[in-house]
Amino acid sequence: MRVEPETDPRAAQRQAAAAARAAARARREAERAARAARAAEPVAVVDKHDGLVRAAHWAHVPLLLGLIVSGLAIYWAAPVFRHAGTPGNPRGDYLVDVGRELASWFGAPGETRYWLYERLSIGPMQLANALRLHWLFAYLYMACGALYAAGLVRGGGWRALLPRASDPAEAVAMFRYYLGVIPHALAKKPWPHPPVAGKYNALQRGAYLAMPLVGALVVLSGWAMHHPATLGWLERLFVNYDGARIVHFTCMVILGGFMIPHVVLAIADGWDTLRGMVTGWSVRVRRAPHA
Amino acid sequence: MPERVKGPALGARLVAALRRAAAAAAERPETSRETTRGALAKRSRRDFLLFGASVVATAVAGWWLLPERAKRAWLPGAAERLDTLAARVGLTRMQREAKLNRVLTFDDDVAEALFSKQRQVRTYARPDPRPLRNNYHGRTPGPEYLPTWRLNLSGLASGRPESLTIDELLTRFARHDMNTRLVCVEGWSHVVAWGGLRFAELLEAYPPAPGARWAALRSTVSLNGAGAPEPYYVSIDLETARHPQALLATHHAGAPLTLAHGAPLRLVAPMKLGLKNIKALTDIAYTADEPADYWNERGYSRYDGL
Q1: ipTM surpassing 0.95
Q2: Looking at the partner chain, which of A159, A225, A230 has a beta carbon nearest the beta carbon of B111?
Q3: Which of A19, A123, B199, B293 could form a disulfide with A117 if both were Cys (CB 3.0 to 4.6 A apart)?
């Protein structure tokens, strides 16, 4: 007859706890080892954007926003695009019409006419402050542009922006591709991306080269308006004072308008592209030999 | 006679140079580099932390710069509390005003460094045919002041003030005509046909006291929006006043100045914004220190150089 050894229940609990601790320790160590092994795994990455280009790229977001808002407040003081005066809009400022239309969309209760203007401080009688803010953002914008240009030179990124002979044909192919993406996705039919020989496709290259050029133009037309007497030669470049205002305003629309497709396409392109603008590297390594 | 060795033709050399330039500017193939996941993760963490910190710093700075009424419009409930928090890290409203005014003086310094006293402001063959806008900041004064109007000069080398009638000014000084652009700080502009005496010639006839660097220009007849007397005053440095295109204008579009445009005498300094071009000028005082300026006291630049 076997006699079960008498066991202390508390001792058994202690033994079980010790075993659980040992198992947990082993598990943690295994996890640590797995993490270390994973951390040591080799990856191939491509450096896409120079650090200065990345910093300047993101700094453009608040700077352009500040410039547009303060610039509209300055514009509001004396519009250049005008129709015949109407009741409630005696100067016939198209921007007043746009602002009222936008305000009515938001459907703010009570006095809606100034809804947008109140929030952006681009309403009447804010010219003095708007001018100070505009100069602040303008000097920062110029510094930011210089940083961007320095980054393009340092990182060699400027080469990917230059136009090339194959651009017109490639631009047509890309345009056709973009038009077909959604219909083909809906019909679940394949729609291959046209081959791209380089960092950017022709449409991207055109847009990314245009941005610094329009940026330079907006700065030049700004100086022409700011100092038409001192920089008379620059004012003449835009025909006259109002010419500089029209160019400045048009550049603002282009710079602001660029952001909409740019953000949509960057998000559509995926996390690697978004992360690349923060960290500079991409795991999309082109295997094929360079065309 | 040694035979001249003939190099390749100029055209061929140009083509070769262009080819070399195109090759130097051609996009380089992407080169991948090997690294480890751990090294990448470390770098990404650092970059995203930096990015996040910049976003927070930008948001704080943006809030600090936002005009008061926009703050109240965005966050009517929390604006006060956020302002108190910002003030704790030194971002007070007073600090903001001081910094933004520093931006204004920085921009003035840039303008002053760019401007050359010798440079002539652009003139035009024909003035704008549209009528010139009357942008009197308050109400346009009535004609009551005209019969007793005088230009009072003080701070002169002679030590005693002078008082001149418009007839004295018109007969003693030659009239100069010019078509220049009047540019308003609001953004509108107008090419105007001006006529008047050169400020420089008045300065020669009535020299300021030694050490004077500024002219304080004043109109005692100007009115506020309600029609009550409210003097208007601007500061002009004497170098600008001595510029050959700085006129004490008496005529506009070939006729004596109307009340709307500053009868009988106004400053026309086309190298300055319109707000320096004081209408219905009554007093000029030469001073060593920079005098007060109406719009500078209301948040605008004091240099106003175009």
Answers
A1: no
A2: A230
A3: A123
